[in-house]
Design goal:
single chain, alpha+beta, Helix Hairpins, Immunoglobulin-like, four-stranded antiparallel beta sheet, three-stranded antiparallel beta sheet, DnaJ_domain, RNA binding, J domain-containing protein
């Protein structure tokens, strides 16, 4: 075969060998047991044969004229040699490598290269072709064009690079069409979900969960759910059904491993990362919701429920019940204090004024104490389901949120996260919000929530008396005050 044909064949084999190698290695590492199939063994044997042919082709190409053509290197002379030196080197090598005088099986190929090198340095046509194309044979030796001998003529003319690419497209296009036809008409064996040994949908539930859902729809398993108040799980029918089913699944897992309940034993491995990313998504949702709810003076229930999701994710329980509290308590060593919060002080004031007028800027100052933390020591990392996954996880740190809302209408007044880098026993912070536009006595509910422990909250009700602004203050303008200052 000519050098061009060798290169063309090598390219065709590489288009199969390279991707097939990655697929075979991936299958060997991800599913070793699934490799014991006839198709995989056949593919592996063909891949080994292709590597053998690739090695043979590389050996053949290296001994041909296709490697980088440098006439000075072939003749073992420097680049500044004269014609006399070139002729002398050529004679010496030709006598040494002549097929009639040398027993080297590659002597003919080496002698041909020496002759081409001498031609490239002495023959005018060879010199012109070498300077323009890098070889004394001229343009016909270009490697870019995937050359191949034509079938209609016996001369040295070659097909263009476009024809070579058309052959590649025809060969691998036929392979692609064959694969599609096998997937369409080959039955379940070649379906995408079965071709890698998966045997079903990625989202298919296990048999126990499916059996429970069937029984749940026929009202046969409601009584089997322990420590669960079904009336507390509300929402649309399909959402309520899935939440109850997942809660039942959690309780069943607690029976087998109360102290070792972590996310990977409940969720499949591919969902582990999703579970760890939920608190980050919840942060974004809470920040956006606070701005929208506060601007529209909407119900604060959305914010409170969202903040209660933090400890639910941290403790791995969707419902705060006796079983969930027991599992949370079981994570603490014997003799440790139960997590508890208390509001030691909460005040509503307006800076520089003794009374609160409509639309005044009211400052809420709170002081909260962590009863489970010693006064002289910082709070330790919370004990959560994240402990056995990542000890440096951000949401193992106990954060406190303060929510203030009007007690009668539940209108959100403000919500913020307490900044406490030292995690001390007692925490103080302040929040500002606008007083109501009308006068009267308003009940302000102040609630402090933990982001790591279930049912760890503290609340206090404050009275905000909004009085009518005095008449003389209403008639006084800023211009009158400026005039009095000038006098």
């Amino acid at each position: 075969m000519s050098p061009e044909e060798l290169t063309f064949t090598l390219v065709l084999l590489a288009l199969y060998a390279v991707p097939s190698t990655f697929l075979v290695l991936r299958r060997l590492f991800t599913d070793p047991k699934g490799c014991l199939t006839k198709f995989f063994v056949l593919n592996f044997v063909v891949l080994l044969l292709s590597f053998f042919f690739v090695w043979q082709l590389v050996e053949a190409i290296q001994t041909s004229d296709m490697i980088a053509f440098d006439p000075y290197e072939i003749l073992n002379i420097p680049g500044y040699s004269t014609k006399k030196s070139i002729r002398k080197a050529y004679r010496a090598l030709s006598q040494q490598l002549h097929p009639d005088k040398s027993r080297d099986p590659l002597a003919a190929s080496k002698f041909s290269r020496v002759a081409k090198a001498y031609e490239a340095l002495t023959d005018p046509a060879g010199i012109a072709n070498y300077k323009k194309y890098g070889h004394p044979d001229g343009k016909s030796f270009h490697l870019v064009d995937f050359k191949a001998r034509t079938c209609h003529t016996m001369d040295a003319s070659n097909m263009s690079g476009t024809t070579g690419l058309a052959i590649i497209a025809a060969v691998y296009g036929g392979v692609l069409v064959t694969g599609i036809l096998m997937a369409l008409f080959g039955g379940d064996r070649y379906k995408p979900e079965n071709c890698c040994g998966g045997g079903g949908s990625l989202y298919e539930m296990d048999d126990d969960m499916k059996a429970f859902l069937v029984a749940l729809e026929t009202h046969q398993c409601i009584s089997a759910i322990e420590h669960c108040d079904i009336s507390r799980i509300t929402g649309q029918d399909h959402v309520q059904r899935d939440v109850i089913a997942l809660y039942y699944h959690l309780n069943q897992a607690k029976v087998h491993a109360v102290k070792d309940l972590v996310v990977p034993c409940i969720l499949p491995p591919r969902a582990k990362d999703i579970a760890l990313q939920l608190p980050y998504l919840l942060d974004v949702f809470v920040e956006l919701s606070i701005k929208m709810v506060a601007d529209k003076r909407s119900d604060s229930a959305t914010i409170v429920h969202a903040l209660r999701l933090y400890p639910s994710l941290a403790q791995g329980s969707l419902v705060v019940d006796a079983a969930a509290i027991a599992v949370q308590r079981g994570r603490f060593p014997d003799g440790a204090k139960v997590p508890q919060l208390s509001l030691t002080e909460a005040t509503l004031t307006v800076d520089g004024e003794s009374d609160v007028f409509p639309k005044d800027w009211v400052t809420l100052r709170v002081t909260c104490a962590r009863q489970h933390v010693a006064p002289s020591k910082p709070a330790a990392k919370a004990l959560t389901i994240y402990d056995k996954i990542d000890l440096s996880y951000l949401y193992r740190k106990e954060q406190l949120w303060v929510v203030a809302y009007e007690g009668t209408t539940h209108t959100l007044l403000g919500a913020w996260k307490v900044e406490d880098p030292s995690d001390s026993h007692q925490v103080s912070d302040a929040l500002g919000f606008w007083a109501p536009a009308s006068t009267g006595a308003f009940k302000v509910e102040v609630r402090v929530l933990s982001t790591t422990y279930l049912d760890v909250e503290a609340s206090q009700t404050l009275t905000l008396n909004v009085v009518k602004q005095p008449q003389q203050l209403q008639s006084t303008s800023i211009f009158e005050e400026l005039d009095s200052d000038d006098e």
